[in-house]
Design a protein that fits this description.
Chain lengths: 473, 473
């Protein structure tokens, strides 16, 4: 195990150098997140399909990591429990339009994680950075439990647990616990825990921050300790159930799936669940008594329990939905935690948007009308008032606007439009609009992923490390 | 599946060119051995350990294949259900003594299978060919069900079902069904079905041939048909049991194993079985009510059922032992089939040698005394008489000698000595003599093989093919 320990030391050193101006030492966090004795027992699964150019290439020494999908190359890197979906990588010759230019790709785009240490990170790339379209770089970045890196390169950063970096090119930043940033570009900054921040240059700027006391109850991180709180307890309680589906090489489908829908072999589906047409259930999604209407999707690490989603619903990475009824086109953003109970049901009307990192944890039944945007921390009707606005009202906003702790500035109309445009893109990419032969998306193209199961060395100096592996079509 | 079909065509063409002077067309045999629909469902397991330099490198297009172990590179090749054990590969700088010369290896030895098509072949290399110590080449060779290639390179050959090429460098040969050759070198020859042939230049020459009628009952091959007979039925009846242990990613040990012994995670052990010290149970070995004494081994594809082996026993690749009691140091050669019944038990005395490819299928109890060599086809005491000789008597033979259908020429003493020397080497290599820290062998070094499970593409043109894969330490 000596080499594995050396590797971790080297990575900590590199990340600390990137973050030197903050004085942060990521060592205690990394060492706590990586239990060496456990790592040795893990195995990894690597998905590939004929639709996606395959190149997994782990160099030097690597440990765990599961579900690379599409091109990837990793160097001296700890990649642990990470989904790294490269299924939206651009291909050679493809033309990327940017501000009037037509940039042609000289090579297939690859995800290139260098000297880096990701811990439990999902990277679902769809890069919007025109500066290097061929490489999606993630270097010297540490991402703690259930942090999401999504759609843009990230360098020299520390991502707290349950934080999300969305469509944002990040350099040398610290993103606090449960913080969400979608701001295009961010450099040498610290984002405080629980801050939800959506900004598009001078066009609009939306922000909200969870009260520390509330956040601590759900998720909190202290140096030298593991992250703890309701989020962690919730996930941990379901870990063992997942283990069962990872223990078997070929799993028989537990539910009937229409031919134009896709349920990952590594999703867990139980109880009275239903899969309609064009539905996508991703790896590590958890469904229990979940009714999924046509075109709905359940992305990686999301939990949908005792709930009904009418159709074209997006349940983004890491979102949780319990005892809820969601109308058509309801969007639930990253890492949102919506918890009704049998007595306190949650209903959300058609087309409403639950902002990423929203916590709705009910102590009474709650009904969110159609066409609303909701954010923040909500336990009941009273809370809702300060944490929602109708799309109509928001569209009329120009300049400054506040509601409760939410601050907005800029064009409400453009904010609403951008959000709706994005949801539409997500549905399209995931295959919700598939009809006959047209509009294929992930639900149609990811039905037949094959998986390789890779074990680390079980003995000796290399114990816990994986042999370097190169996979080519 | 188009590319898989193309690949098979190309390989057939290449093998036929090698065998052109015989007029043989291997096409019908290969196409029958490879059921494309099944191939698509298979997955492969690849073993590696810190003791053995890892380099699996499949180029272009490959299909199944399980349990590569140690360095290997494969090119445009169908490798299907093959164990290819490279755990005795020589290392760079190692010195190989040959007829007074001390040949130093310029590089690690690799197994290099080129353009080739192996079908269900075990290759356990320990090359004795001084001409190219760095490459163990197997090119354009087709090996049907349970054929063994063992310890030497083989080029442009066709190996019938249950045939064995042992320590013999082979070029452009056809080895008939259930034939066994251990003759050092063989070029442009056809060996008839059922021929057992052990030859060392002018020193000795042992041969026996099974009557066609007897052989057909056990194993027979016709063009355009699958091999059939008792051997095939026996193996097929146990296939489903093996499937269960391949279906699980991490299998719990089913039996207690001493710390200096090794039971492969892909062996099947059931009933009242017992593993003593220094025992080696290899991948795909089948044990049922098997008592394995100290230093005994059960090699790949062997079956030991309702039997007791006292210790230091070799059960070579593909051998079957049922309702038998074997004294210490009894050796059972490749693909031998020893079948007693509850009423017709077989006992074999200390140090006796059952020649490779011996069939003992009892219709009465049989007792083989200590210190004998046995070969051929035996159903009872009467048969035994024509198919055995004591080591003592054989050692006195000089020149020509026959017994039954067995023909011998040369030095009996040297033949006996060579055989005993080899058995001793096998026991040593397998770790039977391990004591404290000395004499480590496979039983001690192969306890901690880790396995990668690789799936083929499940869809599209590449269906049934594996992505090319490179694994490095």
């Amino acid at each position: 195990m000596k080499q594995l320990e050396n590797l971790i030391d080297r990575i900590i050193e590199r990340v600390n150098i990137n973050l030197r101006e903050t004085g942060m030492d990521v060592g205690p966090y990394i060492r706590n997140a990586l239990q060496l004795n456990h790592l040795v027992k893990f195995y990894s699964i690597y998905g590939f399909s004929p639709q996606h150019p395959v190149l997994f290439s782990f160099r030097r020494s690597n440990l765990a990591g599961s579900y690379f999908f599409g091109k990837c190359t990793v160097d001296l890197s700890v990649v642990y429990k990470s989904d790294i979906r490269g299924d939206e990588l651009k291909k050679r010759g493809e033309v990327y339009p940017f501000q009037g230019s037509q940039i042609s790709l000289r090579d297939d785009e690859v995800i290139r994680i260098r000297d880096a240490c990701l811990i439990k990170t999902l990277v679902h790339n769809h890069s919007h950075d025109p500066e290097d379209l061929e490489t999606f770089l993630i270097q010297n970045t540490v991402a703690l439990h259930y942090a999401n890196i999504h759609g843009a390169p990230v360098e020299g950063c520390f991502l707290g647990p349950f934080s999300t970096v969305d469509l944002t090119t990040l350099t040398d930043c610290i993103i606090g616990t449960f913080a969400y940033v979608q701001v295009g570009e961010l450099s040498h900054q610290q984002v405080e825990p629980g801050k939800i921040w959506v900004k598009s240059k001078d066009v609009f700027d939306f922000s909200y921050c969870f009260p520390k006391k509330v956040l601590d109850n759900y998720i909190t991180l202290e140096p030298d300790k593991k992250p703890r709180g309701i989020f962690i307890d919730f996930v941990d309680a379901r870990k063992a159930d997942f283990q069962e589906i990872f223990d078997v090489v070929n799993l028989k489908a537990s539910i009937s799936v229409p031919s134009n829908a896709s349920v990952s072999r590594y999703a867990l589906v139980r109880g009275e669940s239903h899969i309609s047409e064009n539905v996508l259930i991703a790896q590590r999604a958890y469904l229990e008594n979940a009714w999924m209407g046509k075109g709905a999707n359940a992305q990686e690490n999301c939990y949908i329990i005792d709930s009904r989603l009418e159709g074209n619903n997006v349940t983004a990475h890491g979102a949780t939905i319990i005892h809820a009824k969601l109308g058509k086109n309801v969007f639930v953003g990253f890492n949102s935690f919506l918890r009704g109970t049998p007595d306190h049901k949650l209903t959300i009307g058609k087309g409403s948007i639950i902002a990423p990192h929203t916590i709705i944890d009910l102590d009474e039944p709650l009904d969110i009308p159609a066409g609303y945007l909701v954010w923040g921390y909500i336990r009941n009707k009273k809370d809702l008032k300060k944490h929602n606005i109708s799309a109509q009202e928001l569209s009329r906003v120009k300049g400054k606007f506040t509601r409760g702790a939410m601050k907005f500035q800029g064009s409400g109309a453009k904010f609403v439009k951008a959000f709706q445009h994005r949801i539409d893109h997500i549905l399209e990419a995931n295959g919700a609009y598939f009809a006959g032969k047209n509009n294929k998306g992930h639900a149609q193209t990811e039905q037949d992923i094959a998986f390789n199961i890779i074990h680390p060395y079980s003995k000796g100096r290399l114990k816990g490390l994986y042999p370097s592996i190169d996979i080519r079509p």
